[in-house]
Amino acid sequence: RQRQMCIRDRSSVFTIAALAPWAFVGFDCIPQASEEYSFSNKKTKALLISSISVAAIMYMIANTATAIVEPWELFIAENSSWPTGAAIEQLIGTIGLILLAIAMLCGIVSGLNAFYLAGSRLLYSMAIADALPSGFKKLDSKYHVPRLGILFMMVLAVIAPFFGRQVLSWLVDMTAVGADLGFLYATAAAFVTARREGNKKQMVISGIGTSFALFFILLLVLPFSPGFLSPQAWIFLAVWVVIGAVFFAVKRKDYYRSTALQDKVSAAAQEAANASDALSEEKAAGFDRQADALT
After folding, report:
1. What is the DSSP letter of 121?
2. Cβ-count burial of 28 within 10 angstroms (0-12 exposed, 13-18 middle, 19+ buried)?
3. Would the pLDDT of 16 be above 90?
């Protein structure tokens, strides 16, 4: 019996782990919106790492606080739909539950704002590369934001809740595959770039990231895996692939012919390099002035 419980618990862990990459999708809003930032890429990297670290700590605190109140078996026996809320209510009362609900609402709203910003910028970049219709790369004359991209996302966000919780859960399962593929593509590209540049440290980091991405994909697609996608999620995935294939077939020639996005990225990299050189020169001049003052 103990062995059966161990196997069941292990299966539960892998079931949740299979969907874990989906929960990290929001953090990629930081680099996607980096074009709007007025600070350096080093600060962007620090912001990304610190945000993931703080979120992980907050999740652990919430889980630990829930586990301290009473064993998880009791929450299941009580058929509690929100164990953390029930635990906080037992410890602090209604006031604590209200404060927790406000904190959760702030987290949801801030996430929605981040997705609007990053998602519209992503559609804008794809349109510049001619991967999407040209309307997505037109900026609003007053606010200088991709207006069509924002409206497109708003329409999807308004319609989605009407499909119901069950349908959205299938959609979430499917998008976990998309998140894994995105992580796999990014880490594999970073590995190839690092190998070309001879950066062994980055090769190791990117290689580990690629391995994890492959592992999470296998958790979702292998039939014997606890996190294997449901038939409904596979249908969503098939529709998603078909839509992508249609867009690729229609825009393929324009996409491969266009160099607008590469030119823009190169110009941004050159601008960052010039800013770094200017900062270095300013620091050197400052040191010279200090040396002159000392002598």
Report:
1. H
2. middle
3. no
